[in-house]
Amino acid sequence: MSLNYCYKMKSEFVKLKDIKPALTGYIKDSQVLLKRSVVPDDEAIHDIRVLMKKARSVLKLVSNQVTKDYCAKSLTDLREVGRNMSSLREIAVRRRTIKELKKENPSLFVQLENDERIKELLKKPELIVEASPQAAEMIAKNEELLKNSAFRIRFEQMDKIDPHLLLKELESTYTDVCGIYLFCRNRPKPGKLHEFRKMAKCFLYQLSFFRPLNPDAIKKVEKLLDGITQNLGKYNDQNQLVKALGYSYRNGSNSTALNELVLLIREKQEIHLSEVWPSAHKLFCPGKKLVNILGFKLLVI
Description:
There is one protein chain. The protein is an all-alpha fold. The protein contains 12 helices and 2 strands. The protein has a two-stranded antiparallel ribbon. Strand 1 and strand 2 (12-15) form a beta hairpin. Helix 2 (42-61) packs antiparallel against helix 3 (68-84), helix 2 crosses helix 9 (190-207) and helix 9 packs antiparallel against helix 10 (215-244). The longest helix is centred in the last third of the chain and has 30 residues, at 215-244. The protein is flat.
């Protein structure tokens, strides 16, 4: 590890988390999960998508310290891996979300038992013995993308990473999150809230590399970020469910039960947002600086 990866704080050098081994690990772990079964299950799909988001966050953190061609190709490939699995993930999330609603409101779902859209969303997935041609093609494509990413990183030099530039990139991410937070607090639209979640996740994943600088303070920030992103994720899951139902409140032919179901979903969304705003204000309100929330200053390298 190069000395350039270390910050001097209180006359002691603190070593940052290694970037190249972490990035390599994300890709290798994804390859293992992809080959664990004939078709990745819901848990594997979720984990692979998370690993891809972590890998892209790391690439953005070092984007101005690696070759542009490497960074661009890797970002594109890793994004494609996640997108290839997104439809499978969305089906599982919608089914889980509506099952939770059914468990909480059994009498309401008795009234909805003949609704074809509800029945389709609740339908149990078939037991997969072998991959469909489409699934097999997707898995093969992802295996190739991950193989290329793993090969590419082996030849990318990352032994002279400048921590000043890492911190600068982290600060850039933080500034972006502050901006989207301000927008969402004034106009909480689903699309922008989804962007807020993605950007906050990126900041969370990048921040983990700086944890050695001030573990207690950074873990507190990570806990707040995790709560924010979890609640925004649930808000988005519920919004996607409403979309899957094809619901419009202007539709005069909606059943009373369907209208009631959507109102219950909206109430849950409001609860999740009410959990987001206090923590987001602590981290991203106007006037906050990155050094304020992390509790350290760069002194000497």
